[in-house]
């Protein structure tokens, strides 16, 4: 069982990758990775981190799932590799900002400190290349379940982890038969009317907070639902997650924001790799 200070194999590919292999962004925002859970798509995230570069990297909460780790320990080598990759980016000059969420709330005890080149903040203001100012926060403060009934939040987390376990087995079967990744848990969640109503209410509440801060937009995570939309003049951005959708929010050099879904990119790259390996087999 690997621990969170294991070898630094995550960066080995850096030496063989050329700059043309990497996508260049001004800023990258990722959240809801949930390292320490079996549902975390660490291999896909690691592939994303290896093939992208940015001046700014924001970790917008729920990076490590402390709730889950307190109940049962799980820590794969790929989870180590993700942390090592982020720290390596910080050493190489990327400005890394960590805004803890509710699943890694213990890190909030270290707000305003720096660790390995990573700044820990309760919330941040990001100024885009086009001059727009964004409030960056995880978003759990606007989740009524977490805010007012913590035991209900944990019950929901337990049920959600069962769905993620089923999702993991389901996608293992899909890969065996050559089908790409598909999130069963996300499909079920967004088929439920109450979930859709909750997402809408959450988005409006977060946009109101941005308005109170007199900024142009807000960037958050928490609800595992990637989105960019205008809410009464406020640009609402949610970077999604790396459990269900494998998405990130990226800022281009001109300040334009975009949601990047990395699962199809990962599948294409590894499908080509499998094809080359098959062709290389002796007849």
TrEMBL record:
> What's this protein's name?
UDP-2,3-diacylglucosamine hydrolase
Which species is this UniProt entry from?
Zavarzinia aquatilis
Is Aminoacyl-tRNA synthetase set as a keyword in this record?
no
* Location of the Calcineurin-like phosphoesterase domain: 27-225
GO biological process, any: lipid A biosynthetic process
For the keyword Kinase, the answer is no
Pfam families documented for this protein? Metallophos
This protein's GO cellular component annotations are: membrane
Q: Where is the signal peptide?
A: none
Which residue ranges run through the membrane? none
Q: Which GO terms describe its molecular function?
A: metal ion binding; UDP-2,3-diacylglucosamine hydrolase activity
Q: Keywords in alphabetical order, please.
A: Cell inner membrane, Cell membrane, Hydrolase, Manganese, Membrane, Metal-binding
Domain of life, per the record?
Answer: Bacteria
